[in-house]
Fold:
Amino acid sequence: MRGNRLRILCGAVWLLAGCARADADRPAALAAQVALDTARPWRKPGDKIDSLLPMAEYLRRFRAGLPQPVRLAGGEVSREALARRFLAAIAAQDSAALIELALTRAEFAWLVFSDHRYVDPPYELDPEIFWMQLTAESAKGITRALRRYQSHSLTFLALQCQRDTLQIRRGPAKLWGPCALRYRDGAREETRRLFGSLVERDGRVKLLSFANDF
Structure:
């Protein structure tokens, strides 16, 4: 089953990244592994999709079968430390390190989404759909970053993030983004948005998504 899921997700990542060359297989496979370990399969053909359900029911369905964490696990103690580890993992093509930095489905379900603006009218959104969107953006973003910086030497210089009070306006979690990461790529200095929003809670920081400017 896991092998089938990995092959399906790899195919989706290759299509998103426009993969047509054999030398791109490794970054695409790494990206698929990151996406696979932070998500579960999308709805299967034939699954019933209900509309206009109460948000409490959407949340119940989304959380079904997930452990309930009390705090974020892994990640880093600061936004800057997370950005440093992210750059190091990209340069090393280290999928395990990238997975450690990413918000899990259970963390999103229990510790983040319930305080998001999409829970309240008139913005209500099924968390399953929101998570699917985040996963798709992450797969595309991480594939492009891994390909672009394969065999590159990356050095952290600075990170500047804006506090996002529009999406999360209550609760213990804070959302940061967009974030501009300043780094050295070999001898060249660059400033880019290399990942999506950051979630900070209880002294830990993790990535909400790997979406970027590429």
